[in-house]
Amino acid sequence: MAEPDRQDRLPSVSGSSEPELAERGNSAPAVDGYEIAGQLGEGGMGTVWRAVQESTRREVALKLLTAGAFASEKARARFEREVELTARLVHPNIARVYDSGLQHGVYYYAMELVDGVHLGEHVRVRTLGRRAILELMRTVCHAVQHAHQRGVIHRDLKPSNILVTEDGQPHVLDFGLAKTFLEEDTGPAISLDGEVSGTPAYMSPEQAAGRVGQIDTRSDVYSLGVILFRLLTGSLPHDLSGTRYEVLRRIAEDEVRRPRQASSQIDRELEALLLKALARDPDQRYDSAGSLGDDIDNYLNGEPLKAKKPTTAYFLAKRIRKYRVPVAAGLAVAAALAGLAVWSYVRIAHERNLAREAAAREHRARLELEAKVLQEQRRFAEAETLYRETLEARRRALGAGHPKTLQTMHDLAATLRRQRKYAEAETLLRETIAGRQRVLGTNDAETLASISQLALVLRMQKRYAEAVGLYRQVLAVLEQAPEMERPDRLMLMQSLAVALQMQGKYDEAEALYRRVLATRRTLLGSDHPGTMWTMSGLAELLQRQGRYGEAETLLRDILAGVQSALGKQHPRALRAMDNLAAVLKARGPDKEAEELLRERDQILRRLKQKGRAVDTPPDPDEEH
Q1: Are 435 and 406 in contact (CB under 8 A)?
Q2: Whole-angstrom distance, CA of residue 595 vs CA of residue 356
Q3: Would 208 disulfide with which of 251, 454, 502, 524, CB 3.0-4.6 Å?
């Protein structure tokens, strides 16, 4: 993401000299491509500025990171990977990352500018009650879950990293970037077993103890629990007096203060919810941020909590409280007691089994979540192992035709496809499609998703006629959908165009490419990766037909857009240079083509010297 021509003449982040930008103090820095409007804040990792991105004219929050954030080349490489992962998060309650780079030896990244106040201030100024606080945190939990499912862990969740806008919507900031900084902290050793950096008050025990290998999505669950504890009780679950070492030791080793001791307004159910989120042992916490959000929803709606032991008496008591009718209270209680005697007789023998089944469900859900995280991180072999374990467990517990079993089969097939295990993926997908057609119907969205993936597997095997037939089948159903231009439909249209192109049906393929391109430019803008992917596909089609001038125009736009957004050394920029050079050379010897290839080779040599591999990211339909 850093531009290599700048690296040659500017000091390294890890060098002994101070970077040029850092010497300017609080004066507005100069960052190519951005107009700085003013400073928004300053912290241990750097400064944040309000700026305008010149290429899009949108306002952004531009964060300049201090040299101490990156103590090694490994830290810088991980930062770039984290930015790439985080930039893929598209959720209304997560502040998006638009751009990143290196200038004057200082790393920066630009993210969505959220005009709002910190979560704690919002609760205080609006004097929010318990229900409003819980509703806010439920939304935050589901935003965090969205990121976890895409391989991004925050690791520094706290009220100041959550801004609430005027309409009452929370937005999580700095998602995923904290992970890089914490793992590469080079300050004094102040934790029990390793080094640690961050905000101690909201750290999980495993973070406070410096046990980096144990940090996962449940560490974020703990931090969410601390935030909720603070908002509901006005205090923190651990004593923060004394030295930093003493504070970290308490968090790592001691149990939290019981919420009902901190506030008399906390009832037993809410206390159980908080204690489960704040369990010292990660295995005793909610298995995901989404599960915590779901239990908050259960509490708000008077439903049984996952945090409570699933006994007969508990479930019945919840039903009585939720559905009692005041004018007939005596009759309701009498009927409930009579029902309790009968229901208990039937259910009491199954309570132990119910508890075991609940634990097994949580285990399967956790396996699946871990597999999704590994898949997003492109660790496909590891993801495959977990998906197979999940599939075996679900077949045994739920049966082969259960919707959740079929979903796991679909996900496993995607992992196999990404490893080019096409034959096994095809067999699994055909079984999945048959099952979904029986259970959900032929035109259900999940059935269509499996058919689309099968079409992609066939296309990868060069079985273009079969792939075209399946793409047409799915698109015929989507044509009847009310959201006529939704992204999945556009992706399928382009996938069909690719298959038609490989069959030599250029006219129909070109018409599809141009229709998709026009829609993507309108919906996403010309500099969006999806738009440039479509431009690249159309350029290849034009090149195949010998229409080099038209292809060259598109490829120049792609190269300029990718280099502006991602930097010259990004894999997509290198591929764009290759493509443009190929078109230029197709018309005969070309000096510009040779210069492009020399520049590409120089970038590759510099990256190799730094020990950085260059893996070209897959096309969007391969990620689908």
Answers
A1: yes
A2: 66
A3: 251
- Please classify residue 404 by burial: count the beta carbons closer than 10 Å to its beta carbon, then call 0-12 exposed, 13-18 middle and 19+ buried: middle
Contact between 215 and 207 (Cβ < 8 Å) = yes
H or E element: which one contains 143? helix 130-148
β-sheet bridge partners, residue 51: 36, 60
Q: In the chain, pLDDT over 70 holds for what percent of residues?
A: 76
Q: Are 50 and 59 in contact (CB under 8 A)?
A: yes
Whether residue 284 contacts residue 276, with contact meaning beta carbons closer than 8 Å, is answered with yes
Per residue in 490-511, pLDDT tens?
889 999 999 999 999 999 999 9
Sheet arrangement for strand 170-172: 116-118, 162-165, 170-172
Cross-sheet strand order for the sheet of 106-112: 34-43, 46-53, 58-65, 106-112, 97-103
Q: Compute the chain's Rg from CA coordinates.
A: 27
Contact 91, 150 (CB under 8 A): no
Q: How far apart are CA 403 and CA 405, in angstroms?
A: 5
Report which of residues 410 and 8 the model is more confident about.
410
Residue 228: how many other CB atoms lie within 10 Å: 25
Q: For residue 262, count other CB atoms closer than 10 A to its CB.
A: 20
Provide the sign of the torsion angle of the four alpha carbons 451, 456, 462, 468, taken in this order.
positive
Residue that the structure tokens 């609430």 belong to: 164
Neighbours of 476 (CB within 10 A): 10
Average pLDDT, integer, range 186-212 = 63
* Residue 402 token pair: 């259960």
């079929």: which residue's tokens? 406
Closest CA relative to residue 187, chosen from 254, 244, 249: 244
Task: Find out whether 394 and 364 touch, Cβ atoms under 8 Å.
Answer: yes
Q: What is the pLDDT of residue 321?
A: 52
Residues 6+ apart with CB under 8 A from 87: 96, 97, 98
Taken in order of first residue, the domains within the chain and their CATH numbers are 4-112 (3.30.200.20), 116-308 (1.10.510.10), 314-355 (no CATH), 356-481 (1.25.40.10), 485-624 (1.25.40.10)
For residue 558, the number of C-alpha atoms closer than 13 Å in the C-beta half-sphere is 29
Asked if residue 475 lies in contact with residue 489, where contact means CB atoms within 8 angstroms, the answer is yes
Helix/strand/coil percentages in the chain, nearest 5: 60, 10, 30
- The tokens of 577 are what? 């240079």
SS3 labels along 259-284: HHHHCCCCCHHHHHHHHHHCCCCHHH
H/E stretch holding 318 reads helix 312-323
Amino acid at 295: D
Does 192 have pLDDT greater than 80? no
d(CA 210, CA 208): 5
In this prediction the pTM is 0.53
Contact, 379 vs 387, CB < 8 A?
A: no
Q: H or E segment at 61?
A: strand 58-65
Task: For residue 469, give the amino acid letter.
Answer: G
